[in-house]
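Message: A physicist's question: would you kindly supply an amino acid chain plus fold tokens?
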Amino acid sequence: MVKRVLQAVPILVGISLVTFILLQLTPGGPTAAYRGIANVTGEDLARIEAELGFDKPIFIQYFSWLGKFVQGNWGISFVARVPVFGLIMERLPATLLLMASGITVSLLLAIPLGLLAAIKRDTWVDHVLTFASFVGLSIPVFWLGLMLIIVFSVWLGWFPTGGMGPPGEEIGVMTRIKYLTLPTVAVSMVSLSFFTRYLRASMIETMDEDYMRFNKARGLPPMRRYMKHAFRNAGIPFVTVVAIHIPEFLVGALVVETIFTWPGTGRLFWDSAVRFDYPVLMGILVLGSLMVLASNLLADVLYAKLDPRVRFD
């Protein structure tokens, strides 16, 4: 694990460097938020660039930002005029809640559906689940979110259209679940379909092994063969795929939080992109990259833990 962490450090530095350069090269540059304002002149822009250090070479800017970043100073938001670290940490719990609920729902549904599709392969049950999985993989998240709002919020009135709870009121557990339901469905649909398809394929491959035919010849009950022997081995790659797939929920949260006005880092990223708030964008992008590297490390550790034969050098 220590070796993997050390290997991740230069990768994270490289990702942050590329991200920093790309943000600097966007039209308008880091001071785009100040352009077009009537009271801001060319001299004012030059003064702002000098105060923020944007008049220096790009690599000097980057290493200056990197030195402050590792010390916990992620810069100051151009729009909110508050530290970026505190602004992101304030929104992060909402995103983590949405991600956790999406992962939970995906696994609770994908595992039994994947097992059922594998056990009933080439039957009408398998065909129906396969068709539903392909539909779930094909539906754009933004379209699904809008349809959920139109049907269940506007037409039926069962769920609120957005937010985390009624403003100015104490939010209970049931109220939180009510506000969380539609965003969770939207963010988990693609992952649910993908997990179901992957587990089905992994189970079918395992069930065709010689030791599974031997267990059947021994007279073991079907459920014992499927759950104790087949699922135990098919679950090893499935667990690693789930761990690697965790950052996908962060990507989905960007769209879902924008549609449902969920006050997380995804919505913050969108608002910052519209307002050219570069320090906030940089902080969220690096945080997302860190989550991707952490999920890959988690996948490696889980794979080695579940299968003692595997050792990563």
